[in-house]
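Researcher: We're teaching a course module on how sequence relates to structure. For the next exercise, students receive a sequence and then see the predicted structure as tokens, so they can try to spot secondary structure elements on their own. Here is the exercise chain.
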Amino acid sequence: MKNLLLVFLIFFMSDSLFSQTLDAILAKESVENSTDVSGTFNGTRIMNGQSIETRQKGVLEFLIQHRFGRINSGGYELYGLDESNIRFGLEYAVTDDFAIALGRSSFEKVYDGYLKYRLVKQKTGNKSVPLSVTLFASGTEKTLKDYDPAKKPSFSDRLVYTSQVLIARKFNSNFSLQISPTYIHYNTASSSLNPNDIYAVGIGIKIKVSKHISINGEYYYSVNSFKSMETENSIALGIGIETGGHIFQLIFTNSRAMIEKGFIAETQGDFINGDIHFGFNISRDFYLIKAKNEEKLY
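Model: And here is the predicted structure for the students to work with:
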């Protein structure tokens, strides 16, 4: 009888131990089966605006953005090609989820800097996450001397801040969508008629048409706008091409500026009436720290 009880006890303990081990294995596999969704967009920009994407740790992105004059300016201006605005930018990935950047635009001679943090990543698997969320915050200084020398604005007066929550979902391998609630603060309004705070919301899409080519679109709706001048909502359409370490985007937009406060709050061209600027973005990645694995853009 004692031997029978001993055998039963050993069997019970073994079964309990096996069940705990099996539960641990299944829990581990559940975590391991959750996979990050990559390539929601094919770069850190959708068109004019930011995407949810951040680079791998140690990657330095060199970004050149170019916008010509309005296409409807006619043959004398070579349909806008005689006029050119450019922005150079450097963005460094401190971690896989956090980046810092600096840039300079020829339009209005603006210096800009920003921080970008990937808060949530879309995941598939047993513990799926339906959305990606990235936080964006920037500051700009306009240095163009377009003022009366007797009324020179202070450094603080020239500052504008932008905050965004970028929310995106890659629905399948061919379609991605992003919503971008936006807040812009001007330290000093350019007119007593203008608000210091601008609220807007953007929507961006990517439609993949081949392995390395996508059609991208972007629209920003301004909830409140300046009263001292006629402004339009920013529209951008174009094609994105990924070629290994380069990303090339051809863009048609009614926005002249290439920074958030400019194209979201200060666009004056009417896209429907042909006030369209042709331009492009081109980026190149430099791996300052050896990558663990190659970043997948698509």
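Model: If you want an answer key for the exercise: The chain is about 10% helix and 45% strand. Residues 33-287 form a domain with the Porin fold (CATH 2.40.160.40).
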